[in-house]
Amino acid sequence: MAIISRGFRGKRDVDPRIPPGQYLERGFPVLSAGPTPRADLSTWTFSITAGGAPRASWTWSELTHLPHDDIVKDIHCVTKWSKLDSAWRGISLDTLLDGVEVAPEEQYAMAHCDGGYTTNVPLADLRGGKAWIAYQYDGAPLPPEHGGPARLLIPHLYFWKSAKWVRSLDLMTEDTWGFWERLGYHAYGDPWKEQRYWGD
């Protein structure tokens, strides 16, 4: 009779799409730093600014009538869960930025959101088919608890960078930390490098 140590289960198959230190989550946990804002779509706008000065702005109707993408991406939360094949609809940041004058020295952006949340992102990570303003999830309007009516979707970075309830992007010449970055989260947040906190 073979002797098998307690707890031995053989080699576990690990999905290569799950970054180090993450586990597979089949649900969609709700994590927020404060209360869930509720937006009035009749007055809702999304803007691109620079130094707070407007460069472009869209109403909800204008935004959602732009050409959209249907996106299926894996997402990774800094709290160590990963969700595979999440399905979204949104407007590419390429589409929005193509109509905006961007100075060569403007290499960063700060997302500003309802509720006061902010997060910083290099402009290069918003271009090249890497980021969207998402307004649907799994074939339905994006629920408020998941950032609806619209959130940033930057799936190649930890999910706190995919800011909920996004209302504007402010173009910047220098990288300035946002809400969680000031509280100890990594300035960039690459899940494959486990860039969770300062010093990672």
UniProtKB/TrEMBL annotation:
Leader peptide range in chain numbering: none
CDD domains hit by this protein: arch_bact_SO_family_Moco
Pfam families: Oxidored_molyb (PF00174)
InterPro entries: OxRdtase_Mopterin-bd_dom, OxRdtase_Mopterin-bd_sf
Occurrences of domain Oxidoreductase molybdopterin-binding (ranges): 34-180
Stored Gene3D superfamilies: Oxidoreductase, molybdopterin-binding domain (3.90.420.10)
Descriptive protein name: Molybdopterin-binding protein
Native organism: Cellulomonas xylanilytica
Biological classification of the source: Bacteria, Bacillati, Actinomycetota, Actinomycetes, Micrococcales
